[in-house]
Amino acid sequence: MSRRTTHLLKGALSTMYYLGIHRAMAPITQGVGLIFMLHHVKPEGVEEFEPNRILKITPEFLETVIEQVQEAGVDVVSLDEVHWRLSEGYFDRPFAAFTFDDGYRDNAEYAYPVFKKHKLPFTIYVPTEFADGNGDLWWLALEKVLRDTDRISVNMGGTNRKFNCSTPGEKDATFHQIYWWLRGEKESDARNWVRELCRGIGFDPSVLSDELVMQWNEIRELAEDPLVTIGAHTKGHYALAKLSLSEARLEVEGSFDRIERELGVRPQHFSYPYGCERTAGPRDFSLLKELGVKTAVTTRKGVLFAEHVDHMTALPRVSLNGDYQNSRYISVLMSGAPFALMNRFRHVNAG
């Protein structure tokens, strides 16, 4: 998302907050609960060029959100509890679950102590090849290349594009053009292309996984705490919709098998890599239902309604985005009002 778009969205959310629009809409838009989506929790500030900053919040903000949720009378629950409440139609109190994608080491270092302090549950979705030490964090590798480069030439769809990226603004614009182009390409090709860029500046992208992602011994230690649920996130963090059905099944079942071998428990909850409409769709929702998971979450934006009982493998989430670390934004998002407007008041978007 561009800085301009972020600025406009912040303005819209602030307007809703100060005019009280979200409070007026909440009785019909807030649903019965919500699932928060997170990635990194780190104490350091944002660099001038850091396009992946949206994936990072501070431990202080995480604690602020938890306290805000509880003060609003919302129960913080596990995904097993989310499944039970939806299945049983138990909506006496609103509920929220916290989920983390990718299995980053900072989840254990900075997020876990916050949840432990408050005695609250949360879930970490693990791509099993990442935990094996083979994580391909290509989006962070692309950021690294552009941080260390003033000019770059890219063959995009047969057209040679040259980008100046000597200033943070130019780097940011270049990142977003290349990133979204790559998201539309075959993922193995996109990853190979980024690796070639890394070789051009003498950077080994595997060090990112070594530095940032938890290995199995760290995951096992976390999983010993009943507050922690370990879910699956495929083997290699591939977009399922870009794979054949047989390939998608191998990615999913392989991740279930690997987690069961390492932890002794077969995962009951799943997160689709990328998780948007282009990367996870009805075929994939049916696959996860067939494989018997309790829940599978997308990155489609929204809160939970009673109707989601029939769409347990296509659940929406609310992103705790690093660009929106302010309690007023959380108040508006928890009301469900922005998502109702975005989704034209449809409760379920699983198409």
Q: Identify low-pLDDT runs.
A: none
* SSE arrangement, N to C: HHEEEHEHEHEHHEEHHHHEHEHEEHH
Distance between the termini: 23 Å
| Shape assignment | globular
CATH class of the largest domain: Alpha Beta
Instruction: Report the biggest beta sheet as strand number plus sense, adding barrel if it closes.
Output: 8 strands, parallel
CATH architecture field of the largest domain: Alpha-Beta Barrel
Number of strands: 12
Mean pLDDT: 96
Helix run count: 15
Overall number of domains:
2
Strand content: 15-25%
Helix percentage = 40-55%
CATH superfamily of the largest domain: Glycoside hydrolase/deacetylase
Can I get a quick summary?
This protein is of the alpha/beta class.
Question: Which key features would you list for this structure?
Answer:
eight-stranded parallel sheet; two-stranded parallel ribbon; 48% helix; TIM Barrel; 15 helices; 351 residues; alpha/beta; 2 domains; globular
